[in-house]
Amino acid sequence: MLAGFASGTTLLEAGVDTDSASAARAINAVTWPPGTVITVQHDDVVHAVHAVHAATILRPGDTLSVLCDTSRLDEVRELITAGHDGSEPTVDETDPPMV
């Protein structure tokens, strides 16, 4: 369990793929699962996402750190990494999700 978060919360870090469902879209234009918390790293600068940053455009190569319910992990991965053509996510799974 992550300190300060409910049991069943997972931290995922993944890069936005060129052909992902979230690439070139504003954060608030992506349908994230309820309770999802996101930070975005553009060009090695971390931006915490608050309401005033909801219009931040996600760009290919951005790194997202996402806290979400473990049961919604596959859904979040697909939003970040799966291509519009239905290709499989390309998240590096060398480190298992933190629960």
Calculate the terminal CA-CA distance, rounded to whole Å.
Answer: 4 Å
Helix/strand order: EEEEEEH
Q: What's the alpha carbon Rg, rounded to whole Å?
A: 13 Å
Supply the CATH architecture. Answer: 2-Layer Sandwich
What does this structure look like?
This protein has 99 residues and is mainly β. It has one domain (9-81): 2-Layer Sandwich (Alpha-Beta Plaits). Helices cover 9% and strands 28% of the residues. It is built from one helix and six strands. The strands form two sheets. Strands 1-6-3-4 form a four-stranded antiparallel β-sheet, with helices on one face. A hairpin with a 2-residue loop joins strand 3 and strand 4. 18% of the residues are buried.
List the defining traits of the structure above.
two-stranded antiparallel sheet; 1 helix; 99 residues; Alpha-Beta Plaits; disordered C terminus; 6 strands; mainly beta
Topology at a glance:
Elements: E1 9-15, E2 25-26, E3 37-42, E4 45-48, E5 57-58, E6 63-69, H1 73-81
Antiparallel strand pairs: 1-6, 2-5, 3-4, 3-6
Brief description of this entry?
By secondary structure, this protein is mainly beta. The protein has one helix spanning 73-81; strands at residues 9-15, 25-26, 37-42, 45-48, 57-58, 63-69.
